[in-house]
Amino acid sequence: MNLSQVELTLLCKSPQSFISKYETGERYLTFTEVLVLCKILPIDLPALIEEVDSDSEGASSPPF
Predict the structure, then answer these.
(1) Shortest CA distance to 35 belongs to which of 12, 16, 55, 58?
(2) Could you tell me which residues come within 8 angstroms of residue 63 by beta carbon, excluding any fewer than 6 positions away?
(3) Which of 16, 32, 42, 47 has the greatest number of C-beta atoms within 10 Å?
(4) DSSP secondary structure string for all residues of 1-64
């Protein structure tokens, strides 16, 4: 799904500045926000977790 910040803002009912800060790394998503985005976009949460987990295998430290 290819959405602009404005479109995602409307779907999430969040300020545009929140979306911008996610993109720039100034703000991290809470787990609740991840769940909301998974429902809106639609993204399969277990598949997302598996992908993130497999990307972090072999990394020396967690990404947080």
Answers:
(1) 12
(2) 56
(3) 16
(4) ----HHHHHHHHT--HHHHHHHHHTSSPPPHHHHHHHHHHTT--HHHHHHHHHHHHTT-SS---
Q: Which of 38, 32, 60 is nearest to 51 (CA)?
A: 38
d(CA 43, CA 59): 25
pTM metric for this prediction? 0.70
- By residue count, the chain amounts to 64
Per-residue pLDDT of 52-62, as tens digits, reads: 888 877 665 55
